[in-house]
Amino acid sequence: MSADLAGLAVGYLAGRTAGGTGRHVLMLATGCAARGARVSVYGPASLAGPGTWRFRELDIGDRPRPAADTRAVLRLRRWLGQDRPGVLHAHGLRAGALAALALAGRPARRTALVVTVHNAPPPGRPAAAVYAALELIVARRADAVLPVSPDLAGRLRRRGARIAGPAVITAPAVAAAGPAQVAALRQELGDGGRPVVFAAGRLAGQKGFGTLIDAATRWQRRQPVPVLVIAGDGPLGPALRAQASAAGADVRFLGARADVPVLLAAADVVVVPSSWEGQPLIVQEALRAGRPLVASRAGGIADLTGADGAVLVPPGDPGVLAAAVTRLLDDPREAAGLAAAARRRAAALPSEAAAVAAAVAVYLRLRPAGRPAGSR
């Protein structure tokens, strides 16, 4: 066990997390505690962890709430004064901006602020304006910014952010599903030998499931008709179910599932139809599972898949999406070649140890005993 962080206090801050961001924070907290750091985590109850770090529950929502945000900043400021982390690593632009406000006015030997930016701005003028304001706060105050994709790096660099390199995000390694597990799951789905098209993620606008359901209506005349299986929950659940019912599309909504690796193994094609993205873990999970993948060319997805690890389609185009899925279902040779390319691409994905090491390298550059010249 390495002790290269002995004597350094590291704090992690995150808002309400769903999926990849929360898992990433827990991975870093566990890895840095193992390396000797004194770790504190500030965020929702889902980040409480196994007891190897101090946890303080803090509610940071996904949109501005002036009164609640003010309370969160004051509470965080008090805790930071007590815990005195040498590095505070915030995840997400809102968490990063609130961390900057909580740290404002601290003395010279203060906490260094690292911010990982996990996501691109949502569409729409009001949301884009809020996002731009958050970007400016983070760019001006953070000592190191870690974007998850090149497009985010470009946006933040234009704001004047100190880009410390790309964030290294990795899906946890899992054991491969066995044939008996796959057979049992397909029986549970009642597919009757029909092709299974699988997608997973939060049922929110970002993930593009409305486009995917529109695509599913276009393959209903194919024989046998593919069954679309979606794992996950979220605010758009009722609307998406109503959309599928009105369209007459065969869609199975499974809710949140703990057996995504088995679902991936049971799928004939995996689809990631996101409208905007950072670096979704489901893409890495599909590559590691060696499944034929159709994904939107959004955010950092193409950087994960490379040129041959997936069929990449424009976001928001159900016709192109449906054509890509049915082409793979109709051409087993192309699907097998894509699955092999996915496994090759997966071999180059970073490990959890590499992700922790990348973050640790940033912390060590910023630790109070060796603050970089010109830091604010």
Write a compact overview of the structure shown.
This protein is of the alpha/beta class and 376 residues long.
Provide a descriptive summary of the structure in words.
This protein is of the alpha/beta class and 376 residues long. It folds into two domains: 9-170 and 351-370, Glycogen Phosphorylase B (Rossmann fold), CATH 3.40.50.2000; 179-347, Rossmann fold. It has helices at 20-34, 66-83, 93-103, 125-141, 150-158, 179-189, 209-218, 237-247, 260-266, 281-289, 301-305, 318-330, 332-347, 352-366; strands spanning 9-14, 38-43, 54-57, 87-91, 112-117, 144-147, 196-200, 227-231, 251-255, 269-272, 293-296, 311-313. The strands form two sheets. The chain has a six-stranded parallel sheet with strand order 3-2-1-4-5-6, sandwiched between helices. The longest helix is centred in the N-terminal third of the chain and has 18 residues, at 66-83. The chain is globular, with a radius of gyration of 22 Å. The protein starts with 8 loop residues before the first strand and ends in a 10-residue tail after the last helix.
